[in-house]
Amino acid sequence: MFALVVRFDCRDLDSAVTFDELTAEVVRAIAENEPGTLTYATHAVDGEPLARVFYEVYRDRDAFQAHETAEHVRRFHARKEPLLVATRVEFLQPRN
């Protein structure tokens, strides 16, 4: 299993709305096209209207690589970048 958490900080409220729209599109494409993606959960952050957090779990590192190179994900990355002021990625290590 391979997992990560990503935090995105949007520029402003309009950017957050657009980011959420792009997220809805890519989540549908991930569910339909990525059998190696086990969990792809997206969240708003309570009390921080410009922050979003994604929790992602993949079957293995190869499934993650397939996700990253998928056309729908590459398109999402390109379209989301102008909406953001910061991104933080944390790769997780399983315990037990």
From TrEMBL:
Keyword check for Repeat:
no
* An example molecular function term from Gene Ontology annotations: monooxygenase activity
Q: Name one Pfam family in it.
A: ABM
Gene3D superfamilies in the record: 3.30.70.100
Q: What's the superkingdom here? A: Bacteria
**Would the keyword Flavoprotein be found if you checked this record's keyword annotation?**
no
Keywords carried by this UniProt record? Monooxygenase, Oxidoreductase
Domain ABM: from-to ranges: 2-91
- The identity of this protein, by name, is Antibiotic biosynthesis monooxygenase
